[in-house]
Amino acid sequence: MAKGLDIGTMNIICAEKEGEDVVFMQQRNAFMNLDSNDLTKNMLDTSKVLYIEEENGISLLGEDAFKFATIFEKEARRPMSHGIISPKEKEAIPIMKLIVERVLGKPRTKNEVLCVSTPADPIDVDMDVLYHKKTMEALAKGMNYDTHVIDEGLAVIYSELSDYNFTGVGISVGAGMTNVTLAYLGTPLMSFSIGRGGDWIDEQVSKSTGLPKEHVTHTKEKNSKLSKQVKMGSPEGALTIYYEALMTYVIQNLNKRLAKITPPKVAFPVAVAGGSALPEGFFEIFEKKLRESKLRVEISKIKLAKDPLHAVARGCLIAARTQEEGQKTGALTQKKEKEKK
Amino acid sequence: MHEDYLMEEKGGSSRLLRRGVSIYYVGSMLFVAGIALVALGSAFIMIFQLHYGSEANQILYTTIFLGTGIILVLIGINMMIKQTKKGYYIIGLSAFISSLAIFIFASNYLHNWYYPIINYVLVLYIMGFLVLLGNAFGNVTLWIIENRPEAMVNEESLAKTYTDEEIQRDINEATRKSVEAAASELQFEVGDTGDIKLGKSSPKTCGLITRVKDDIEESISLKQTIKPGSTEKWGSIGIDKVSMQLAETMNQQKVGKRRFGGFKERILKRFGKQKDN
């Protein structure tokens, strides 16, 4: 038994194997404060909403916090920003722990292997992800999991590039950041992250159109299509512009970083995943831009993950299962050696 | 004398102590005195023309001068060399043992100079002598080892000047390593969420559940890719993969052989034809 956990700025997703299926448990990484009164509590209890009672009110957790924020036109609070624990929301760590506990569940076996995805070091934002990594590791270890950490980009490679011997470029366009990893035979050669992702697009669109950020996020997730022909005043037009801007930024940075290494002379496939890669038309634009860019490595194929939202969690699950099998094999070998002795 | 026991690093008994100036002078004085006594002893040997049948007093004085001189020379050398904390105790102890041997010799020669007293005196003296000699050797070796990297760094730093970029890169690298080391030692205490009061009907597990039919065979091939050759656990798939790799390699070898073989065959054919003709 093993699990994969993708702790993202927007969603916390757990992947585990159940029989012939892989089950993904997904929850929003958000909360929202409400004033506490009996009527509200009754209403929330009837609707089976996940909330906690605090001294100064109620905090709705997860997806419901997001829904209520959209209804009340309030801003949902986010424990993470730019892919790491938000320095402004440090008190939200217990809340995040609660969400993780609910999504992950208890380990089914002693020292069950868990692989957690974390962002790579950002190249355009002055912040360090080490503290975040350690906190996430501690959070999972505290739940009695044998915790391992892998880069988001590498998780995409594990999930999507098995046909290419885990050689290629994995790009995860998340809400807080975009993670990129170049790997050769499953070994990362270069990993970096960019402090721009879906949230950055939402912010820019919100500024341009005057719509609340939550509304933009909702539009983007529910019915967005990136196209050049859009209705006047709709957020779709702005979304297309800023999506293109983000793609160009990612490709330029990838090229810049490639100049600093000497990758093997092979054609690399590229896999794109992440919640922000979901809008219709995203992949077509990205593929076109990547083909047009004169990248320093040869690109063999560009593919969109089969399930972009769950690809990172799936990659983590693959890594966790591999790790688990490695441990089993190691234990068996040791046992055999002992028997021989 | 406070300067005599200055230490380079606190508490390091195995580290060399920074030797004070006065200890160095005392050591050199003892060394000179020792040399003088050895010279005097040697002079006595020549003056008295010492042999087995010489007078007892002549033998006694010559031996005392020589014996004391040699020990003083060794103590002097030891004191002039940088010592460990233990080293000073060793010098004191061995000096005492050797002095005791000389004293026993002086008080017992000639009338009580029998076995096993002779053995005891010899053992004590030789022990003191060897320990002093060994201590001096050991500390010199330690001093050479401790000073070697310093010397190399100095040579390098003299030879090379660093650019600002290199310095900045080194600083960044050192800072990164230090942060990583500090982070790896961090022990987070994750606060228990037990005191948070959950809503009455809050479900134990929550979230959107997506179920996908998926074998996750990638984990098999990932293990194969990262650790090629580890096939025993994965059964047929792993065996297939390795078999294919083997077949591929053998194919390549065949092609190589055919090329070489073809060349050889052509030569043989030509020669064969010539022979037939």
SSE diagram, text form:
The complex is a heterodimer of chains A (341) and B (277).
Chain A: E1 2-7, E2 11-18, E3 21-28, E4 31-34, H1 38-46, E5 51-54, E6 57-61, H2 63-72, E7 80-81, E8 84-85, H3 93-104, E9 113-118, H4 130-141, E10 146-151, H5 152-160, E11 168-173, E12 178-184, E13 187-194, H6 198-209, H7 213-223, H8 235-258, E14 268-273, H9 282-292, E15 299-304, H10 311-340
Parallel strand pairs in A: 1-9, 9-10, 11-14, 14-15
Antiparallel strand pairs in A: 1-2, 2-3, 4-6, 5-6, 7-8, 11-12, 12-13
Helix pairs in contact in A: 5-10, 6-7, 6-8, 8-9
Chain B: H1 21-48, H2 56-80, H3 85-108, H4 117-159, H5 164-185, E1 197-198, E2 208-213, H6 218-226, H7 236-276
Helix pairs in contact in B: 1-2, 2-3, 2-4, 3-4
What does this structure look like?
The complex is a heterodimer of chains A (341) and B (277). Chain A has 341 residues and is of the alpha/beta class. Chain A has two domains: 3-29 and 78-333, Nucleotidyltransferase, domain 5 (2-Layer Sandwich), CATH 3.30.420; 31-77, no CATH class. Chain A has helices at residues 38-46, 63-72, 93-104, 130-141, 152-160, 198-209, 213-223, 235-258, 282-292, 311-340; strands at 2-7, 11-18, 21-28, 31-34, 51-54, 57-61, 80-81, 84-85, 113-118, 146-151, 168-173, 178-184, 187-194, 268-273, 299-304. In chain A, helix 5 crosses helix 10, helix 6 packs across helix 7 (213-223) and helix 8 (235-258) packs parallel to helix 9. The model of chain A has no long low-confidence stretch (mean pLDDT 87). Chain B is elongated, with a radius of gyration of 41 Å. Residues 1-13 and 231-240 of chain B have low confidence and may be disordered. The interface between A and B is large, with 63 and 42 residues.
**N/C terminus separation of chain A:** 31 Å
Oligomer: heterodimer
Shape of chain B: elongated
Spatial extent as radius of gyration of chain A: 21 Å
- Indicate the proportion of strand residues of chain B: under 5%
Q: Rg of chain B to the nearest angstrom?
A: 41 Å
